[in-house]
Design a protein that fits this description.
Length: 139
């Protein structure tokens, strides 16, 4: 599987879209080696009106268009914590089904993950076990 990605930097309004296409292994290496704490330290050094985003990495499966985003923050004891954002296709029936069934993208978000747990959810996404991921994200 191939993944495109984007990076949100605290100080920059423009989201970065690197041109590289990543493999599953590349995605895991990037998330594990990303300087999350350093980016949060930098964000905390900025004035409030200078902050554009929390540090984030967003990965999109090239074929399914499903995406998974990890956003870093500090918890109550100043430890590293993540929110996870899973964007997937859902089926819905507009106008009570009079127009048939359609698909649209919809985001599920969940908060309060350790880095280890966030990576476990990312691995489920990378394995394309979308039903399992959706079940975990809606608990």
């Amino acid at each position: 599987m191939s993944y495109t990605y984007s990076i949100c930097h605290p100080e920059n309004e423009e989201i970065e879209y690197p041109s590289a296409v990543l493999s599953r292994e590349d995605v895991l290496k990037l998330v594990e080696s990303y300087p999350w704490n350093e980016r949060l330290d930098f964000m905390e050094s900025l004035l409030e009106d200078e902050i554009c985003y929390s540090p984030s990495l967003d990965f999109t499966n090239v074929s399914s268009k499903y995406s998974f985003c990890l956003t870093a923050m500090r918890n109550d004891v100043k430890g590293l914590e993540f929110s996870l954002w899973y964007d997937r296709k859902i089926k819905y029936k507009p106008f009570f089904g009079l127009l048939g069934e359609k698909e649209k993208m919809q985001v599920l978000d969940k908060w309060g993950f350790s880095k280890k747990d966030a990576i476990e959810y990312l691995k489920i996404f990378l394995e394309k076990d979308y039903k399992e991921l959706e079940a975990l994200m809606t608990i």
